[in-house]
Amino acid sequence: MQLDEKISIIEAILFASGDPVEIEKLSFASGTEQETIPKLVKMLSDRYEETKSALVVIKLNNSYQLATKSEYADYIRNALETKRSAPLSSAALEVLTIVAYNQPVTKSFIEHIRGVDSSGIVNSLIEKNLLEEAGRLDVPGRPIAYRTTDNFLRCFKLSSLDDLPVLPDRSEQVSFDEITV
Amino acid sequence: MQLDEKISIIEAILFASGDPVEIEKLSFASGTEQETIPKLVKMLSDRYEETKSALVVIKLNNSYQLATKSEYADYIRNALETKRSAPLSSAALEVLTIVAYNQPVTKSFIEHIRGVDSSGIVNSLIEKNLLEEAGRLDVPGRPIAYRTTDNFLRCFKLSSLDDLPVLPDRSEQVSFDEITV
Amino acid sequence: MAELSFKLEKFEGPLDLLLYLISKHKLNINDIPIVSLLEQYMEYIDQMAEQDMEIAGEFLEMAARLIYIKTVSLLPSPEEAERLKKELEGRLVEYSLCKKAAALLGERYNGGSIFVRSPLKIEIDNTYRLVHDKNILLETYKNANLKYSWKNETTVSSFESIVSKKVVSVASKILYVLKKLYTFGTVKLDGIFEDMAGRSERVATFLAILELTKSGRILISDDNSEISFCGPLREKRHVLAEV
To answer: Which of A54, B105, C105, C191 has CB 3.0 to 4.6 Å from B109, enough for a Cys bridge?
Structure first.
Protein backbone atom coordinates (compact mmCIF):
# COMPACT_ATOMS: atom_id res chain seq x y z
CA MET A 1 0.00 0.00 0.00
CA GLN A 2 1.18 3.50 -0.78
CA LEU A 3 2.25 5.66 2.11
CA ASP A 4 -0.12 8.40 0.93
CA GLU A 5 -2.96 5.97 1.17
CA LYS A 6 -2.08 4.93 4.71
CA ILE A 7 -2.00 8.55 5.76
CA SER A 8 -5.43 9.05 4.25
CA ILE A 9 -6.81 6.02 6.04
CA ILE A 10 -5.72 7.56 9.33
CA GLU A 11 -7.29 10.83 8.24
CA ALA A 12 -10.57 9.13 7.31
CA ILE A 13 -10.77 7.35 10.66
CA LEU A 14 -9.98 10.48 12.64
CA PHE A 15 -12.48 12.49 10.65
CA ALA A 16 -15.28 9.96 11.05
CA SER A 17 -14.67 9.33 14.73
CA GLY A 18 -14.74 12.95 15.75
CA ASP A 19 -13.65 11.92 19.23
CA PRO A 20 -10.02 11.19 20.11
CA VAL A 21 -8.95 7.78 18.74
CA GLU A 22 -6.35 5.67 20.55
CA ILE A 23 -3.21 4.58 18.77
CA GLU A 24 -4.13 0.90 19.19
CA LYS A 25 -7.46 1.44 17.52
CA LEU A 26 -5.91 3.37 14.65
CA SER A 27 -3.40 0.57 14.25
CA PHE A 28 -6.05 -2.14 14.31
CA ALA A 29 -8.49 -0.37 12.01
CA SER A 30 -5.89 0.66 9.45
CA GLY A 31 -3.92 -2.60 9.59
CA THR A 32 -0.70 -0.73 10.40
CA GLU A 33 1.84 -1.43 13.11
CA GLN A 34 1.36 0.66 16.24
CA GLU A 35 4.88 2.05 16.02
CA THR A 36 4.16 3.46 12.58
CA ILE A 37 1.08 5.41 13.61
CA PRO A 38 2.85 8.44 15.12
CA LYS A 39 4.94 8.75 11.95
CA LEU A 40 1.86 8.65 9.73
CA VAL A 41 0.11 11.18 11.94
CA LYS A 42 3.13 13.45 11.68
CA MET A 43 2.96 13.21 7.89
CA LEU A 44 -0.74 14.03 7.97
CA SER A 45 0.04 17.09 10.09
CA ASP A 46 2.74 18.13 7.63
CA ARG A 47 0.29 17.72 4.78
CA TYR A 48 -2.15 20.09 6.52
CA GLU A 49 0.69 22.48 7.25
CA GLU A 50 1.87 22.58 3.65
CA THR A 51 -1.55 23.18 2.17
CA LYS A 52 -2.31 25.82 4.84
CA SER A 53 -5.32 23.76 5.87
CA ALA A 54 -7.53 24.84 8.77
CA LEU A 55 -7.16 21.39 10.29
CA VAL A 56 -4.65 20.08 12.80
CA VAL A 57 -4.09 16.75 14.48
CA ILE A 58 -3.84 17.10 18.24
CA LYS A 59 -2.53 14.51 20.65
CA LEU A 60 -4.49 13.80 23.83
CA ASN A 61 -2.99 11.17 26.10
CA ASN A 62 -2.59 8.12 23.92
CA SER A 63 -5.02 9.34 21.28
CA TYR A 64 -5.20 11.60 18.27
CA GLN A 65 -8.01 13.89 17.31
CA LEU A 66 -8.75 16.06 14.31
CA ALA A 67 -9.54 19.70 15.16
CA THR A 68 -9.52 23.17 13.70
CA LYS A 69 -6.78 25.70 14.32
CA SER A 70 -7.74 28.26 16.91
CA GLU A 71 -7.42 31.20 14.50
CA TYR A 72 -10.58 30.04 12.71
CA ALA A 73 -12.63 30.10 15.91
CA ASP A 74 -14.47 33.33 15.13
CA TYR A 75 -15.58 32.20 11.67
CA ILE A 76 -16.80 28.90 13.05
CA ARG A 77 -18.65 30.63 15.87
CA ASN A 78 -20.33 32.84 13.27
CA ALA A 79 -21.46 29.82 11.32
CA LEU A 80 -22.57 27.75 14.30
CA GLU A 81 -24.06 30.84 15.93
CA THR A 82 -22.33 30.13 19.21
CA LYS A 83 -21.13 32.85 21.49
CA ARG A 84 -17.53 33.30 22.47
CA SER A 85 -17.30 31.69 25.88
CA ALA A 86 -16.53 34.06 28.72
CA PRO A 87 -12.99 33.77 30.07
CA LEU A 88 -12.66 31.56 33.11
CA SER A 89 -12.86 33.38 36.45
CA SER A 90 -9.92 33.08 38.79
CA ALA A 91 -12.09 30.99 41.10
CA ALA A 92 -12.84 28.59 38.25
CA LEU A 93 -9.15 28.40 37.38
CA GLU A 94 -8.36 27.60 41.02
CA VAL A 95 -10.84 24.74 41.09
CA LEU A 96 -9.57 23.39 37.77
CA THR A 97 -6.02 23.54 39.05
CA ILE A 98 -6.86 21.65 42.21
CA VAL A 99 -8.62 18.93 40.24
CA ALA A 100 -5.98 18.77 37.51
CA TYR A 101 -3.09 18.22 39.89
CA ASN A 102 -4.86 15.92 42.38
CA GLN A 103 -7.49 13.98 40.46
CA PRO A 104 -9.70 12.22 41.23
CA VAL A 105 -10.83 14.58 43.99
CA THR A 106 -14.06 15.26 45.87
CA LYS A 107 -15.83 18.58 46.31
CA SER A 108 -14.85 18.67 49.95
CA PHE A 109 -11.18 18.31 49.08
CA ILE A 110 -11.50 21.31 46.76
CA GLU A 111 -13.31 23.27 49.44
CA HIS A 112 -10.72 22.41 52.02
CA ILE A 113 -7.92 23.83 49.90
CA ARG A 114 -9.82 26.94 48.82
CA GLY A 115 -11.51 27.53 52.17
CA VAL A 116 -14.81 28.38 50.49
CA ASP A 117 -17.81 26.51 49.16
CA SER A 118 -17.02 25.56 45.55
CA SER A 119 -20.08 23.56 44.56
CA GLY A 120 -21.43 26.09 42.09
CA ILE A 121 -18.09 26.41 40.35
CA VAL A 122 -17.64 22.65 40.06
CA ASN A 123 -21.10 22.36 38.50
CA SER A 124 -20.45 25.11 36.00
CA LEU A 125 -17.14 23.50 35.04
CA ILE A 126 -19.00 20.25 34.43
CA GLU A 127 -21.44 22.15 32.21
CA LYS A 128 -18.50 23.58 30.31
CA ASN A 129 -17.24 20.02 29.85
CA LEU A 130 -13.97 20.82 31.62
CA LEU A 131 -14.65 18.49 34.56
CA GLU A 132 -16.54 15.21 34.77
CA GLU A 133 -17.57 12.75 37.43
CA ALA A 134 -15.15 9.91 38.01
CA GLY A 135 -17.27 7.53 40.03
CA ARG A 136 -17.52 7.46 43.79
CA LEU A 137 -14.68 7.12 46.25
CA ASP A 138 -14.65 4.04 48.43
CA VAL A 139 -14.68 5.97 51.72
CA PRO A 140 -17.55 6.65 54.15
CA GLY A 141 -20.33 8.60 52.47
CA ARG A 142 -19.12 7.39 49.06
CA PRO A 143 -18.58 10.95 47.78
CA ILE A 144 -18.46 11.65 44.05
CA ALA A 145 -14.95 12.19 42.70
CA TYR A 146 -14.16 14.55 39.83
CA ARG A 147 -11.51 14.60 37.11
CA THR A 148 -10.62 16.73 34.13
CA THR A 149 -11.89 15.92 30.63
CA ASP A 150 -10.27 15.59 27.22
CA ASN A 151 -11.83 18.94 26.47
CA PHE A 152 -9.85 20.36 29.39
CA LEU A 153 -6.64 19.12 27.77
CA ARG A 154 -7.71 20.67 24.47
CA CYS A 155 -8.63 24.01 26.02
CA PHE A 156 -5.30 24.27 27.83
CA LYS A 157 -3.23 23.03 24.91
CA LEU A 158 -2.01 19.99 26.82
CA SER A 159 -1.51 16.59 25.25
CA SER A 160 -1.64 14.86 28.59
CA LEU A 161 -1.71 15.64 32.28
CA ASP A 162 2.07 15.16 32.31
CA ASP A 163 2.19 18.39 30.33
CA LEU A 164 0.76 20.43 33.21
CA PRO A 165 3.04 23.30 34.24
CA VAL A 166 5.49 22.26 36.96
CA LEU A 167 4.24 23.39 40.35
CA PRO A 168 6.03 26.36 41.90
CA ASP A 169 8.46 25.63 44.70
CA ARG A 170 6.75 25.04 48.02
CA SER A 171 9.39 26.88 50.04
CA GLU A 172 9.03 30.20 48.28
CA GLN A 173 7.49 33.09 50.14
CA VAL A 174 4.29 34.35 48.57
CA SER A 175 4.05 37.84 47.29
CA PHE A 176 0.68 39.27 46.45
CA ASP A 177 1.61 40.22 42.90
CA GLU A 178 2.24 36.60 42.10
CA ILE A 179 -0.93 35.29 43.57
CA THR A 180 -3.32 37.77 42.06
CA VAL A 181 -4.60 36.07 38.99
CA MET B 1 -6.91 38.28 2.79
CA GLN B 2 -5.04 35.52 1.04
CA LEU B 3 -7.02 33.13 -1.11
CA ASP B 4 -5.51 30.21 0.80
CA GLU B 5 -6.85 31.62 3.99
CA LYS B 6 -10.37 32.02 2.59
CA ILE B 7 -10.35 28.42 1.46
CA SER B 8 -9.31 27.32 4.93
CA ILE B 9 -12.06 29.35 6.53
CA ILE B 10 -14.58 27.44 4.42
CA GLU B 11 -12.84 24.22 5.40
CA ALA B 12 -12.94 25.08 9.10
CA ILE B 13 -16.66 25.88 9.00
CA LEU B 14 -17.54 22.72 7.06
CA PHE B 15 -15.41 20.60 9.39
CA ALA B 16 -16.87 21.95 12.61
CA SER B 17 -20.48 21.91 11.40
CA GLY B 18 -20.54 18.29 10.35
CA ASP B 19 -23.92 18.83 8.75
CA PRO B 20 -24.38 20.38 5.31
CA VAL B 21 -23.92 24.16 5.38
CA GLU B 22 -25.84 26.47 3.04
CA ILE B 23 -23.98 28.78 0.71
CA GLU B 24 -25.58 31.84 2.33
CA LYS B 25 -24.35 30.78 5.71
CA LEU B 26 -20.86 30.09 4.43
CA SER B 27 -20.86 33.48 2.79
CA PHE B 28 -22.06 35.27 5.90
CA ALA B 29 -19.76 33.45 8.31
CA SER B 30 -16.65 33.84 6.21
CA GLY B 31 -17.42 37.38 5.06
CA THR B 32 -17.16 36.39 1.39
CA GLU B 33 -19.52 37.11 -1.48
CA GLN B 34 -21.97 34.30 -2.20
CA GLU B 35 -20.80 34.07 -5.82
CA THR B 36 -17.26 33.35 -4.69
CA ILE B 37 -18.15 30.41 -2.45
CA PRO B 38 -18.45 27.73 -5.18
CA LYS B 39 -15.06 28.80 -6.53
CA LEU B 40 -13.47 28.51 -3.08
CA VAL B 41 -15.11 25.13 -2.51
CA LYS B 42 -13.76 23.96 -5.84
CA MET B 43 -10.27 25.00 -4.79
CA LEU B 44 -10.69 23.17 -1.49
CA SER B 45 -11.70 20.03 -3.40
CA ASP B 46 -8.66 20.39 -5.65
CA ARG B 47 -6.47 20.74 -2.62
CA TYR B 48 -7.80 17.46 -1.23
CA GLU B 49 -7.39 15.84 -4.62
CA GLU B 50 -3.77 16.90 -4.97
CA THR B 51 -2.74 15.68 -1.55
CA LYS B 52 -4.66 12.41 -2.00
CA SER B 53 -6.64 13.28 1.12
CA ALA B 54 -9.46 11.03 2.33
CA LEU B 55 -11.77 14.04 2.47
CA VAL B 56 -14.12 15.36 -0.20
CA VAL B 57 -16.57 18.21 -0.37
CA ILE B 58 -19.99 17.08 -1.50
CA LYS B 59 -22.72 19.36 -2.77
CA LEU B 60 -26.30 18.81 -1.62
CA ASN B 61 -28.83 21.19 -3.15
CA ASN B 62 -27.67 24.59 -2.04
CA SER B 63 -25.29 23.29 0.64
CA TYR B 64 -21.84 21.82 1.01
CA GLN B 65 -20.70 19.11 3.36
CA LEU B 66 -17.32 17.62 4.23
CA ALA B 67 -17.19 13.84 4.03
CA THR B 68 -14.80 10.95 3.53
CA LYS B 69 -14.37 9.20 0.19
CA SER B 70 -16.41 6.03 -0.03
CA GLU B 71 -13.34 3.78 -0.43
CA TYR B 72 -12.47 4.42 3.21
CA ALA B 73 -15.81 3.16 4.51
CA ASP B 74 -14.47 -0.24 5.61
CA TYR B 75 -11.63 1.25 7.63
CA ILE B 76 -14.02 3.65 9.30
CA ARG B 77 -16.44 0.87 10.11
CA ASN B 78 -13.57 -1.12 11.60
CA ALA B 79 -12.57 1.78 13.79
CA LEU B 80 -16.04 2.72 14.97
CA GLU B 81 -17.04 -0.88 15.62
CA THR B 82 -13.94 -1.70 17.64
CA LYS B 83 -14.90 1.25 19.77
CA ARG B 84 -17.89 -0.81 20.81
CA SER B 85 -16.40 -4.28 20.89
CA ALA B 86 -13.62 -3.52 23.32
CA PRO B 87 -13.29 -6.25 25.97
CA LEU B 88 -15.89 -6.06 28.72
CA SER B 89 -14.95 -3.92 31.69
CA SER B 90 -14.94 -5.56 35.10
CA ALA B 91 -18.04 -3.56 36.00
CA ALA B 92 -19.82 -4.88 32.89
CA LEU B 93 -18.77 -8.42 33.77
CA GLU B 94 -20.14 -7.94 37.25
CA VAL B 95 -23.54 -6.84 35.98
CA LEU B 96 -23.61 -9.64 33.46
CA THR B 97 -22.83 -12.20 36.15
CA ILE B 98 -25.47 -10.90 38.50
CA VAL B 99 -28.07 -11.16 35.75
CA ALA B 100 -26.84 -14.57 34.62
CA TYR B 101 -27.24 -16.19 38.04
CA ASN B 102 -30.43 -14.44 39.12
CA GLN B 103 -32.44 -13.77 35.99
CA PRO B 104 -34.85 -12.25 35.46
CA VAL B 105 -33.70 -9.30 37.55
CA THR B 106 -34.41 -5.59 37.72
CA LYS B 107 -31.94 -2.74 37.55
CA SER B 108 -32.50 -1.95 41.20
CA PHE B 109 -31.61 -5.50 42.19
CA ILE B 110 -28.32 -5.12 40.32
CA GLU B 111 -27.69 -1.77 41.92
CA HIS B 112 -28.48 -3.15 45.34
CA ILE B 113 -25.84 -5.84 45.03
CA ARG B 114 -23.21 -3.61 43.43
CA GLY B 115 -23.96 -0.58 45.57
CA VAL B 116 -23.66 1.75 42.57
CA ASP B 117 -25.86 3.01 39.80
CA SER B 118 -25.64 0.47 36.98
CA SER B 119 -28.08 1.89 34.45
CA GLY B 120 -25.46 2.88 31.89
CA ILE B 121 -23.81 -0.53 32.01
CA VAL B 122 -27.09 -2.38 31.59
CA ASN B 123 -27.89 -0.26 28.56
CA SER B 124 -24.51 -0.85 26.97
CA LEU B 125 -24.87 -4.60 27.56
CA ILE B 126 -28.20 -4.46 25.78
CA GLU B 127 -26.53 -2.64 22.87
CA LYS B 128 -23.90 -5.35 22.78
CA ASN B 129 -26.70 -7.89 22.60
CA LEU B 130 -25.59 -9.61 25.82
CA LEU B 131 -28.70 -8.65 27.81
CA GLU B 132 -32.31 -8.18 26.78
CA GLU B 133 -35.56 -7.12 28.38
CA ALA B 134 -37.69 -9.92 29.78
CA GLY B 135 -40.99 -8.17 30.38
CA ARG B 136 -42.06 -6.44 33.56
CA LEU B 137 -42.14 -7.89 37.05
CA ASP B 138 -45.49 -8.13 38.79
CA VAL B 139 -44.44 -6.05 41.80
CA PRO B 140 -45.23 -2.41 42.65
CA GLY B 141 -43.88 -0.06 40.01
CA ARG B 142 -43.81 -2.89 37.49
CA PRO B 143 -40.07 -2.61 36.88
CA ILE B 144 -38.49 -3.99 33.72
CA ALA B 145 -36.68 -7.30 34.21
CA TYR B 146 -33.59 -8.33 32.28
CA ARG B 147 -32.14 -11.65 31.17
CA THR B 148 -29.14 -12.84 29.20
CA THR B 149 -29.29 -13.51 25.45
CA ASP B 150 -28.25 -16.37 23.20
CA ASN B 151 -25.30 -14.24 22.18
CA PHE B 152 -24.27 -14.21 25.85
CA LEU B 153 -24.22 -18.04 25.83
CA ARG B 154 -22.05 -17.95 22.69
CA CYS B 155 -19.59 -15.44 24.15
CA PHE B 156 -19.05 -17.54 27.25
CA LYS B 157 -19.11 -20.90 25.48
CA LEU B 158 -22.20 -22.10 27.32
CA SER B 159 -24.72 -24.44 25.75
CA SER B 160 -27.39 -23.33 28.20
CA LEU B 161 -27.75 -21.50 31.48
CA ASP B 162 -27.46 -24.85 33.28
CA ASP B 163 -23.89 -24.82 32.08
CA LEU B 164 -22.99 -21.84 34.28
CA PRO B 165 -20.18 -22.67 36.72
CA VAL B 166 -21.63 -23.94 39.99
CA LEU B 167 -21.37 -21.45 42.81
CA PRO B 168 -19.33 -22.59 45.84
CA ASP B 169 -22.27 -22.61 48.24
CA ARG B 170 -25.67 -21.94 46.85
CA SER B 171 -27.11 -21.12 50.26
CA GLU B 172 -24.85 -18.09 50.56
CA GLN B 173 -26.26 -16.67 47.44
CA VAL B 174 -28.64 -13.76 47.80
CA SER B 175 -31.95 -14.51 46.24
CA PHE B 176 -34.36 -12.05 44.79
CA ASP B 177 -36.92 -12.62 47.55
CA GLU B 178 -34.53 -11.49 50.23
CA ILE B 179 -33.98 -8.11 48.75
CA THR B 180 -37.29 -6.92 47.56
CA VAL B 181 -37.07 -4.05 45.19
CA MET C 1 -14.70 54.12 50.74
CA ALA C 2 -16.03 52.88 47.43
CA GLU C 3 -12.55 51.80 46.47
CA LEU C 4 -12.21 49.87 49.68
CA SER C 5 -15.42 47.96 49.20
CA PHE C 6 -14.32 46.97 45.73
CA LYS C 7 -11.17 45.63 47.32
CA LEU C 8 -13.06 43.63 49.91
CA GLU C 9 -15.37 41.97 47.46
CA LYS C 10 -12.63 40.57 45.35
CA PHE C 11 -11.40 38.11 47.95
CA GLU C 12 -12.35 34.57 47.06
CA GLY C 13 -12.52 33.54 50.68
CA PRO C 14 -10.86 33.87 54.04
CA LEU C 15 -7.66 32.16 52.89
CA ASP C 16 -7.42 34.62 50.04
CA LEU C 17 -7.82 37.53 52.44
CA LEU C 18 -5.21 36.07 54.79
CA LEU C 19 -2.73 35.64 51.94
CA TYR C 20 -3.32 39.25 50.97
CA LEU C 21 -2.66 40.44 54.52
CA ILE C 22 0.45 38.29 54.83
CA SER C 23 1.85 39.65 51.60
CA LYS C 24 0.81 43.25 52.29
CA HIS C 25 2.48 43.32 55.69
CA LYS C 26 5.38 41.17 54.52
CA LEU C 27 4.75 38.53 57.18
CA ASN C 28 6.52 35.20 57.09
CA ILE C 29 4.01 32.63 55.90
CA ASN C 30 5.97 29.88 57.64
CA ASP C 31 5.76 31.60 61.02
CA ILE C 32 2.70 33.81 61.15
CA PRO C 33 2.39 36.26 64.06
CA ILE C 34 -1.17 35.23 64.89
CA VAL C 35 -1.95 38.26 67.06
CA SER C 36 -1.23 40.89 64.46
CA LEU C 37 -2.75 38.81 61.67
CA LEU C 38 -5.92 38.46 63.73
CA GLU C 39 -6.06 42.21 64.30
CA GLN C 40 -5.73 42.98 60.61
CA TYR C 41 -8.21 40.29 59.69
CA MET C 42 -10.81 41.59 62.14
CA GLU C 43 -10.30 45.10 60.80
CA TYR C 44 -11.36 43.86 57.38
CA ILE C 45 -14.30 41.96 58.78
CA ASP C 46 -15.40 45.09 60.64
CA GLN C 47 -15.12 47.10 57.46
CA MET C 48 -17.26 44.60 55.67
CA ALA C 49 -19.83 44.83 58.42
CA GLU C 50 -19.74 48.64 58.37
CA GLN C 51 -20.49 48.62 54.69
CA ASP C 52 -23.33 46.24 55.37
CA MET C 53 -21.73 43.67 53.11
CA GLU C 54 -23.01 40.23 53.75
CA ILE C 55 -20.25 38.40 55.52
CA ALA C 56 -20.01 34.83 54.34
CA GLY C 57 -19.95 32.15 57.00
CA GLU C 58 -16.46 31.12 55.93
CA PHE C 59 -15.06 34.51 56.90
CA LEU C 60 -16.64 34.31 60.34
CA GLU C 61 -15.43 30.78 60.81
CA MET C 62 -11.89 31.86 60.05
CA ALA C 63 -12.26 34.71 62.55
CA ALA C 64 -13.34 32.19 65.14
CA ARG C 65 -10.42 29.95 64.27
CA LEU C 66 -7.88 32.77 64.60
CA ILE C 67 -9.35 33.87 67.90
CA TYR C 68 -9.22 30.32 69.09
CA ILE C 69 -5.56 29.90 68.12
CA LYS C 70 -4.73 33.14 69.87
CA THR C 71 -6.58 32.11 73.01
CA VAL C 72 -5.03 28.68 73.14
CA SER C 73 -1.60 30.22 72.74
CA LEU C 74 -2.14 32.05 76.03
CA LEU C 75 -2.47 28.76 77.86
CA PRO C 76 0.53 27.48 79.87
CA SER C 77 1.32 24.67 77.44
CA PRO C 78 1.49 26.10 73.93
CA GLU C 79 1.67 22.78 72.01
CA GLU C 80 -1.97 22.90 70.88
CA ALA C 81 -1.60 26.47 69.65
CA GLU C 82 1.56 25.56 67.79
CA ARG C 83 -0.19 22.63 66.14
CA LEU C 84 -3.18 24.73 65.05
CA LYS C 85 -0.89 27.46 63.78
CA LYS C 86 1.15 24.97 61.74
CA GLU C 87 -2.03 23.58 60.30
CA LEU C 88 -3.20 27.02 59.22
CA GLU C 89 0.20 27.84 57.78
CA GLY C 90 0.13 24.59 55.86
CA ARG C 91 -3.24 25.45 54.36
CA LEU C 92 -2.06 28.93 53.43
CA VAL C 93 1.08 27.64 51.72
CA GLU C 94 -0.99 25.07 49.88
CA TYR C 95 -3.54 27.64 48.77
CA SER C 96 -0.89 30.08 47.61
CA LEU C 97 0.67 27.29 45.56
CA CYS C 98 -2.73 26.59 44.11
CA LYS C 99 -3.16 30.23 43.11
CA LYS C 100 0.24 30.31 41.46
CA ALA C 101 -0.42 27.11 39.57
CA ALA C 102 -3.84 28.44 38.53
CA ALA C 103 -2.16 31.54 37.10
CA LEU C 104 0.29 29.38 35.15
CA LEU C 105 -2.54 27.24 33.86
CA GLY C 106 -4.63 30.29 32.99
CA GLU C 107 -1.93 31.51 30.62
CA ARG C 108 -2.44 28.41 28.52
CA TYR C 109 -6.22 28.75 28.21
CA ASN C 110 -7.39 29.16 24.64
CA GLY C 111 -11.02 29.80 25.52
CA GLY C 112 -12.44 26.83 23.68
CA SER C 113 -11.34 28.15 20.29
CA ILE C 114 -10.45 24.72 18.96
CA PHE C 115 -13.37 22.93 17.35
CA VAL C 116 -13.86 19.23 16.84
CA ARG C 117 -16.47 17.19 15.02
CA SER C 118 -19.20 15.01 16.34
CA PRO C 119 -18.78 11.37 15.31
CA LEU C 120 -20.14 10.23 11.97
CA LYS C 121 -23.45 8.45 12.35
CA ILE C 122 -23.33 5.08 10.65
CA GLU C 123 -25.33 1.93 11.20
CA ILE C 124 -23.33 -0.27 13.47
CA ASP C 125 -23.75 -3.81 14.64
CA ASN C 126 -22.77 -3.67 18.28
CA THR C 127 -23.10 -7.35 19.04
CA TYR C 128 -20.33 -8.42 21.34
CA ARG C 129 -18.15 -11.05 19.67
CA LEU C 130 -15.22 -11.75 21.98
CA VAL C 131 -15.24 -15.14 23.65
CA HIS C 132 -14.41 -15.68 27.32
CA ASP C 133 -13.93 -18.60 29.64
CA LYS C 134 -17.12 -19.22 31.59
CA ASN C 135 -15.24 -19.37 34.88
CA ILE C 136 -14.73 -15.61 34.69
CA LEU C 137 -18.39 -15.43 35.66
CA LEU C 138 -17.79 -17.50 38.76
CA GLU C 139 -14.90 -15.32 39.87
CA THR C 140 -16.88 -12.19 39.23
CA TYR C 141 -19.84 -13.51 41.14
CA LYS C 142 -17.76 -14.27 44.20
CA ASN C 143 -16.44 -10.74 44.24
CA ALA C 144 -19.85 -9.20 43.71
CA ASN C 145 -21.25 -11.27 46.57
CA LEU C 146 -18.42 -10.19 48.83
CA LYS C 147 -19.38 -6.61 48.29
CA TYR C 148 -22.95 -7.40 49.15
CA SER C 149 -22.23 -9.15 52.42
CA TRP C 150 -19.82 -6.40 53.40
CA LYS C 151 -22.62 -3.93 52.93
CA ASN C 152 -24.88 -6.11 55.00
CA GLU C 153 -22.60 -5.95 58.00
CA THR C 154 -22.79 -2.19 58.16
CA THR C 155 -25.44 -1.82 60.82
CA VAL C 156 -26.48 0.92 63.17
CA SER C 157 -24.10 -0.40 65.79
CA SER C 158 -21.11 0.39 63.54
CA PHE C 159 -21.91 4.05 63.94
CA GLU C 160 -22.97 4.13 67.57
CA SER C 161 -19.62 5.11 68.99
CA ILE C 162 -19.44 8.01 66.57
CA VAL C 163 -22.96 9.29 67.04
CA SER C 164 -23.63 8.85 70.73
CA LYS C 165 -20.91 11.14 72.04
CA LYS C 166 -21.52 14.58 70.66
CA VAL C 167 -18.72 17.01 71.37
CA VAL C 168 -19.39 20.63 70.56
CA SER C 169 -16.31 22.69 69.74
CA VAL C 170 -15.72 26.08 71.28
CA ALA C 171 -14.74 27.41 67.85
CA SER C 172 -18.17 26.57 66.44
CA LYS C 173 -19.83 28.42 69.29
CA ILE C 174 -17.60 31.46 68.84
CA LEU C 175 -18.95 31.52 65.34
CA TYR C 176 -22.47 31.11 66.64
CA VAL C 177 -22.15 33.99 69.09
CA LEU C 178 -20.54 36.28 66.49
CA LYS C 179 -23.31 35.52 64.02
CA LYS C 180 -25.97 36.36 66.62
CA LEU C 181 -24.25 39.63 67.39
CA TYR C 182 -23.98 40.58 63.74
CA THR C 183 -27.68 39.94 63.38
CA PHE C 184 -29.07 41.46 66.56
CA GLY C 185 -26.36 43.81 67.80
CA THR C 186 -27.02 43.03 71.44
CA VAL C 187 -27.92 39.63 72.82
CA LYS C 188 -29.39 38.72 76.21
CA LEU C 189 -27.09 36.28 77.96
CA ASP C 190 -29.76 33.94 79.27
CA GLY C 191 -31.48 34.03 75.86
CA ILE C 192 -28.44 32.66 74.12
CA PHE C 193 -28.62 29.37 76.02
CA GLU C 194 -32.34 28.97 75.59
CA ASP C 195 -32.52 26.44 72.75
CA MET C 196 -29.55 24.40 73.84
CA ALA C 197 -30.19 20.84 74.84
CA GLY C 198 -26.85 19.24 75.58
CA ARG C 199 -24.44 20.00 78.35
CA SER C 200 -21.50 20.02 75.94
CA GLU C 201 -23.25 22.68 73.87
CA ARG C 202 -23.89 24.95 76.86
CA VAL C 203 -20.36 24.59 78.16
CA ALA C 204 -18.89 25.35 74.73
CA THR C 205 -21.07 28.45 74.37
CA PHE C 206 -20.10 29.67 77.80
CA LEU C 207 -16.41 29.17 77.00
CA ALA C 208 -16.91 30.92 73.65
CA ILE C 209 -18.30 34.00 75.39
CA LEU C 210 -15.37 34.00 77.80
CA GLU C 211 -12.86 33.70 74.96
CA LEU C 212 -14.49 36.51 73.01
CA THR C 213 -14.52 38.72 76.11
CA LYS C 214 -10.92 37.93 76.90
CA SER C 215 -9.78 38.82 73.37
CA GLY C 216 -11.72 42.08 73.58
CA ARG C 217 -14.14 41.30 70.78
CA ILE C 218 -17.27 41.54 72.88
CA LEU C 219 -18.38 43.32 76.01
CA ILE C 220 -20.53 42.00 78.86
CA SER C 221 -22.86 44.67 80.23
CA ASP C 222 -22.39 45.92 83.83
CA ASP C 223 -25.28 43.89 85.20
CA ASN C 224 -24.00 40.74 83.42
CA SER C 225 -27.28 40.38 81.53
CA GLU C 226 -26.30 41.03 77.90
CA ILE C 227 -23.39 41.05 75.47
CA SER C 228 -22.49 43.35 72.58
CA PHE C 229 -19.56 44.18 70.28
CA CYS C 230 -16.68 46.33 71.46
CA GLY C 231 -15.75 49.43 69.50
CA PRO C 232 -17.45 51.34 66.69
CA LEU C 233 -19.75 48.53 65.64
CA ARG C 234 -21.52 48.70 68.93
CA GLU C 235 -23.25 52.03 68.48
CA LYS C 236 -24.21 51.27 64.94
CA ARG C 237 -25.70 47.93 65.79
CA HIS C 238 -27.61 49.44 68.67
CA VAL C 239 -29.28 51.85 66.32
CA LEU C 240 -30.06 49.11 63.87
CA ALA C 241 -31.47 46.90 66.55
CA GLU C 242 -33.80 49.59 67.77
CA VAL C 243 -35.17 50.46 64.35
So the answer is: B105
